[in-house]
Specification:
By secondary structure, this protein is of the alpha+beta class. It folds into 2 domains: about 240 residues, D-Maltodextrin-Binding Protein, domain 2, CATH 3.40.190.10; about 210 residues, Dipeptide-binding Protein, domain 3, CATH 3.10.105.10. The chain is about 25% helix and about 25% strand. The chain contains 16 helices and 25 strands. Strands 12, 13, 14, 19, 20, 21 and 22 form a 7-stranded mixed sheet that branches. Helix 12 links the parallel strand 19 and strand 20. Helix 11 packs across helix 12 and helix 15 runs antiparallel to helix 16. It is globular. About 40% of the residues are buried. The N terminus is likely disordered.
Length: about 600
């Protein structure tokens, strides 16, 4: 929700109270009548504005960073990827609810056989590349080969992590065989297709000195065709005439910008027409009639994590008391400035898999009462106390060997693990320890919102009976403390995948020395995470719902919010923006520049 300017609000109040032109006191108003000698003629009606109609024509101006390649598989920059998607469409797309669907311009059908752990792609008959060559299974094979050989930091490198092998079945059909059935495999097929007949460039066999020449002639099958590129003038694309339905927009000019700040300046200065903005940069455009603003929820997620190596935080009432001490109702505006969607769960609220949840009411009395009922006492010290059993967490080794078809070094991400999950155990010599609610909360100092949230949370928790030390650290030190588990609580941000693969965050295999920084070990949670990963497509919602139930009940962490962003566009552009991740131009064939016609 955007904040309304107090100055504007004050102006409205003054107009309401004082009026715009008060009458002199004592003046008597008389009704107006036309002169008796003239026949009254009502004033001519003002012509209605001409309706907006979608007509073909116009140029759209956008921006990107300097591309190192025009091969979308080898590219590493997201702004370049968005532009290249206009030339190289993706095999599958995401709708407004982040649900995958088959791109019918490329594929006739994509069949997922959950039992056989195979994916069969049948390409659309009649689809052609911009140079007239037909789309074939060889193109998909060439694309898969390129993804296999791409560098680790490329955008689509890990989409094939769960693909064991693939082969050409016939002219239009490719079958992929998976290491394991994976319910999010359709999300992994959101990648672009490149042509096999451009073997030299697209197989990465171009020498560096030849790259400049080869970059000038990419061939795709998207709504727009490549026309020209130079590092000084940028790139020009033109609408493709080879498609059944030609886009309304004729031409796209792409300027080269060095960073996000330059993008914002270019938008404000009229050099570009649309920008998928940063986390909160759209606020400066929201009240300007020259622009349209479309909010969206990003995959950037803030959460409060606990270190379960601390016996204090293993106590569920303690975590519940912390939850009651977070003023969720105020966070959206006081901490995030309206640029966040509060969420206890690490599942994007705009996703078709999300559940509507209401954070608990901020209640410090309930927090204190929860602690008292759990046996935490007050001896006049700065924090409540209780005698707890001190026992170290141990992650036992798996009792079964991995499936023999998996390579020794294979660690599928996000594919499900083939090894069983250990249960929680403790050391054999527990001791009683007098424990106080004295906790250290770490946060990286570069993030102003999380630092402010940490300070607010510490203030509230101290009223509830805790003693909280907030430590703000440079990110490198913050990361080091996370990896070493040198904290009691942490506030951190995650860039989550569109499909909720959460074993990296909560899986027992990743506790103690992996990415499960909380050291949370639970056989039940592991089972529910695996159920999400192994569900058939019809069972995904039920499996995610069961996982959500556990996270809300047991509180292995406390979710705070997903950050919001926005797509800001020039008012002359009419576009139904798809706000799903990476889908900015997915329906650009429906966009048009407004033209008034009588």
């Amino acid at each position: 929700m955007f904040r309304i300017s107090r100055l504007i609000a004050a102006f409205i109040v003054l107009c309401v109270i004082g009026g715009c032109a008060a009458e002199p006191i004592g003046m008597t108003l008389q009704p107006w009548t036309p002169a008796p000698t003239e026949e009254y003629q009502p004033p001519a009606a003002t012509p209605a504005p001409a309706p907006e109609v979608a007509v073909r024509g116009g140029t759209l101006n956008i921006s990107m960073r300097t591309p190192m390649t025009l091969n979308p598989i080898f590219n590493t920059d997201e702004s370049v990827d968005a532009v290249l998607s206009l030339i190289f469409p993706k095999l599958m797309l995401l709708d407004e609810e982040h649900k995958p669907y088959v791109n019918s311009a490329i594929a006739q059908a994509i069949d997922f056989d959950h039992d056989a752990a195979t994916v069969t792609v049948t390409l659309r008959d009649g689809a052609r590349w911009h140079d007239g060559a037909p789309l074939s299974a060889d193109d998909l094979i060439a694309t898969l080969n390129a993804i296999r050989r791409a560098a680790d930091n490329t955008i689509y490198k890990h989409t094939l992590d769960n693909v064991r092998s693939y082969e050409r079945i016939d002219r239009r059909t490719v079958e992929m065989r998976l290491f394991a059935a994976y319910s999010g495999m359709d999300y992994n097929l959101v990648f672009p297709i490149i042509p096999a007949h451009r073997h030299g460039f697209y197989e990465g066999e171009i020498e560096p000195q030849e790259l400049a020449t080869e970059m000038l002639d990419p061939v795709g099958l998207g709504f727009f065709e490549f026309y020209s590129f130079s590092s000084a003038r940028g790139m020009t694309l033109v609408a493709s005439d080879s498609l059944v339905e030609r886009p309304y927009i004729d031409r796209i000019n792409v300027i080269i910008t060095p960073d996000a700040g330059a993008d914002l300046d270019a938008l404000n200065g009229g050099l570009i027409d649309i920008l998928d903005g940063g986390i909160s940069d759209w606020a400066r455009f929201s009240a300007n009639p020259r622009f349209n603003v479309t909010e969206r929820t990003t995959q950037f997620y803030d959460k409060l994590g606990f270190n379960f190596a601390n016996p204090v935080l293993r106590e569920k009432p303690v975590r519940q008391a912390i939850l009651y001490s977070i003023p969720f109702d105020a966070l959206e505006n006081t901490i995030y400035g309206g640029a966040a969607w509060l969420s206890l769960l690490p599942i994007n609220p705009q996703s078709w898999l999300a559940r509507e949840t209401e954070p608990p009411r901020f209640d410090l009395d309930a927090a204190r009462r929860t602690l008292t009922e759990a046996g935490w006492g007050d001896d006049g010290g700065s924090a409540l106390y209780k005698t707890l059993i001190q026992a170290d967490l141990i992650r036992p080794e798996a009792t079964e060997e991995p499936h023999e078809e998996y390579p020794d070094d294979y660690a599928p991400e996000p594919a499900p693990t083939p090894t069983p999950t250990p249960t929680v155990t403790q050391d054999s010599d527990p001791v009683e320890v007098l424990s106080r609610l004295s906790l250290t909360l770490i946060v990286n100092e570069e993030n102003a919102e999380r630092v402010a949230l940490a300070d607010l949370l510490a203030e509230n928790l101290e009223e509830a009976g805790f003693d909280i030390l907030v430590v703000s650290l440079p990110f490198a030190q913050f990361e080091s403390r996370l990896l070493a588990r040198e904290f009691d609580m942490f506030l951190a941000g995650y860039n989550l995948a569109a499909y909720p693969e959460l074993s990296f965050m909560f899986g027992s295999r990743n506790a103690l020395d992996g990415t499960n920084f909380s050291n949370y070990i639970s056989e039940e949670l592991d089972l529910r995470i695996r159920a999400v990963l192994r569900a058939d497509f019809d069972g995904r919602e039920e499996a995610v719902s069961a996982l959500s139930d556990y996270l809300l009940e047991e509180l292995p962490s406390v979710g705070i919010a997903f950050r919001k962003s926005a797509v800001v566009s020039n008012a002359r552009l009419r576009a139904n923006i798809n706000t799903a991740p990476g889908m900015l131009f997915s329906n650009i064939n429906e966009w048009h520049i407004i033209v008034n016609q009588r």
